[in-house]
Write a structure and sequence with these properties.
three-stranded parallel β-sheet, two-stranded parallel ribbon, alpha/beta
């Protein structure tokens, strides 16, 4: 039985900001029109997350990385830039942080996560476990309640 060759597709999700035009031109210039999709802003990301093999988050700064939490909820691996917000969500010992703006390290990690399915599976399991233990709505509500109580008690 011969398996059909499935080529990877990169789906870029987010606001079409200042870099959109240059990105669009580069995709066309390098003949990647069939390999890269620029979806723009998506209201309900669940459809994209559910079909993705893993997520890439290359933010320079961020306050609350909801999209990483969504990938964790769906038991997906994430490759993320090494910023405080990402460490807060994924944990200090998460193995797939890359230095901000280091495209070579990011590319290495994409190859690793793509090719090493066992590694990706173990990360996916760890991500969903961390989500369930720390980031599920009931856990977040309890954390906020505790924070508010502590603040009120300190007055």
């Amino acid at each position: 039985c011969i398996k059909p060759l499935i080529l990877p597709v990169l789906i870029l999700v987010g606001e079409k900001g200042d870099t959109f035009e240059n990105l669009f031109k580069m995709i066309h210039e390098f003949e990647l029109d069939n390999d890269v999709i620029l979806s723009g802003f998506v209201e309900d990301i669940s459809g994209i997350v559910s079909i993705a093999d893993f997520g890439i988050h290359s933010s320079v700064s961020e306050s609350q990385p909801n999209s990483i939490i969504e990938f964790m909820c769906y038991s997906k691996a994430v490759i993320a830039s090494d910023i405080i917000a990402h460490r807060d969500v994924l944990g200090e010992d998460y193995p797939f942080f890359f230095p901000v703006k280091d495209h070579k390290k990011l590319a290495e990690m994409v190859v690793q996560v793509s090719e090493l399915k066992d590694l990706r599976t173990s990360i996916e399991k760890a991500n969903v476990k961390r989500f369930e233990q720390n980031l599920a709505v009931d856990k977040m509500v309890l954390s906020y309640q505790l924070l508010i109580r502590n603040c009120l008690n300190e007055r």
